[in-house]
Amino acid sequence: MRINKNILPILNTVKYAALKKDIPLWSTASFKRHYCVNADADSSINFSDIPIERIRNFSIIAHVDHGKSTLADRLLELTGTIKGGPSQILDKLQVERERGITVKAQSASLLYKHNGEIYLLNLIDTPGHVDFSNEVQRSLSVCQGVILLVDSNDGVQAQTVANFYLAFVNDLVIIPVLNKIDLKNADPQRVTNELKSLFDINPADVLKISAKLGIGVESVLESVVTKLPSPKVDRSANLRALLFDSMYDKYRGALSLIYVQDGCVSLGDSIATFHNKKVYEVKSLSVLRPDEVPVKKLVAGQIGLVGCNMRSPKEAYVGDTIHHTDCTVEPLEGFKSSRPMVFAGVYPTDQSQHINLRNAIEKLTLNDSAVTVDLDTSPALGQGWRLGFLGLLHLEVFTQRLTQEYSAEPIITAPSVTYKIRLKPTKQNVKDKSEVMFVNNPAHFPEQNRIEQTFEPMVIGTIVTPDKYLGPIMSLCMERRGVQRTANNIDNSRVILQYDLPLCEIVLDFHDTLKTISSGYASFDYENNDYIESNLVKLGILLNGTLVDELSHIVHVTKARTIGRQMVLKLKEMIPRQMIHIAIQAVVNGKVMAREDLKAYRKDVTAKLYGGDVTRRMKLLAQQAAGKKKMRMVANVSIPKETFIEVLKK
Description:
Layout: H1 13-20, H2 29-35, E1 55-62, H3 68-78, H4 94-99, E2 106-114, E3 117-125, H5 133-140, E4 145-151, H6 158-169, E5 173-179, H7 188-199, E6 207-208, H8 217-227, E7 240-249, E8 253-262, E9 264-266, E10 270-273, E11 279-281, E12 284-288, E13 292-294, E14 297-299, E15 303-310, E16 321-324, E17 342-348, H9 354-367, E18 372-378, E19 382-389, H10 392-406, E20 410-412, E21 419-423, E22 436-439, E23 451-466, H11 470-479, E24 483-489, E25 494-502, H12 510-517, E26 523-533, E27 536-543, E28 546-547, E29 553-556, H13 560-574, E30 582-588, E31 591-598, H14 614-634, H15 641-648
Parallel strand pairs: 1-3, 1-4, 4-5, 5-6
Antiparallel strand pairs: 2-3, 7-8, 7-16, 8-15, 9-14, 10-11, 10-16, 12-13, 12-15, 17-19, 17-20, 18-19, 21-22, 21-23, 23-25, 23-26, 24-25, 27-28, 27-29, 27-30, 30-31
Helix pairs in contact: 9-10
């Protein structure tokens, strides 16, 4: 293990000996004696007896791979909540462990002893990728402060900037923490200057830790207790609880993760929700440590899990307010739901699996409220759904969870975005206002003569990169029709760029291409920026003059020829040869953008000739050509389902 020499002065002899022997710091007797002062805290304490002044609700926010889950592990161990075990214990999903990223916010209640008093710390570990910003937003709605974690080696990244301003807008107290100071190439001074330059954070307020080795983690807990405010709640008022997350249990139905804003809720209480007006009896209450610990009562300021026999996943509406049935209260403000950015069709491989896939999607959307579901039908693939996601990684993770957790095998079509179209007034009454429609399926794109204006969704993209990759990155953004907003130097070697980019240009491979040309050093984040007028057209695919709607695309007019060429070449490879000649054409408003021909099977009708006049040979070939022409006039092009699947899949 190579240790950054700059941190050696803050280590005592015992700790340094542990480092040389490659022993985890938090497992040494000296470390436990000095730091785990609360490891023997009474785990049977009555949580509802802890006063409001000794409750802290906070989240850990950071860019991808800056050590959020590792820091959460150290906090759990340091407070005696867990006794060792696997790393990244809050990453419970199989997809999280396989990919090494957090995709689902997880909560844990910690008991921490400070100055002889027991404090209840409700920790929420959040994802770092931009596609799961909805999880961060929901988590921050129940917090009073955040730990802003920054890698001492990589420094401030794009999602660091986005998360900081998300916490800043929510008026939360921010504790800046530099992680991974043990790495050889760590430069805490440089990163501290970046925080000062970008966010005006006082360098003296920045904590320097190593979550992996446990260095300085105690100071994080002390800062949470001393710097974060207690929740502003009223335990004497009527019950008001915010339902900010949910999950499904096959034995108990839908379980609701709630933050009690006012009053209290006990076992056996009769509760109702504002959204669906249904009445339930509280069957179970628990706090997460991080496994469920049953309790008899949850009081204002606490976060806990409620089971009340919600049998349908649709009943647990995220953002809803829970209250007692015998009193009337004002609903909580909740939080603004994120709008889906990317849409894809999901179909069963066989229609006999339709019901099983529908049940799996319903249960999984309960655990991921950012996904929108609409029914859809395809002549080629049958009945299915049109699902909306926050990004391409969100789509991939959702699909992987369907396969791993519910043994489903869905067909996923290529992702698309939602376009806005203003139609011309009808001829019957030209004074009518123009009708506006939203389209995310190319099959529903109207005829060109009905369209007055077309609009495409835009995003504000933030790129943080070393300056030596500036040229290729700017070229990439210009190639994707980006318009530069700002370009500022973070320090002597790094630049932060902002571009207006069309969403359709970044949902597929923009992030991968950016990582490739920057050798993995550049980071990217984006936020929605409404719609802008754009020249959009429907790129149709014709097979022998017949339009195949399932293969159509909505594209910008400047990209029509390029995408059309790619499509016809792919179809030429995928469609099996048949008895007739097939002309594959990509067309826009009747104009052919690209064409490929798939030759027919040909029988050698002259094989039986062994001599004679050449007119005999010509007669046989003419008869064959006439037969082929007649067959082409009456025959339909047969496209196997497997071809549709391969072409439509991303």
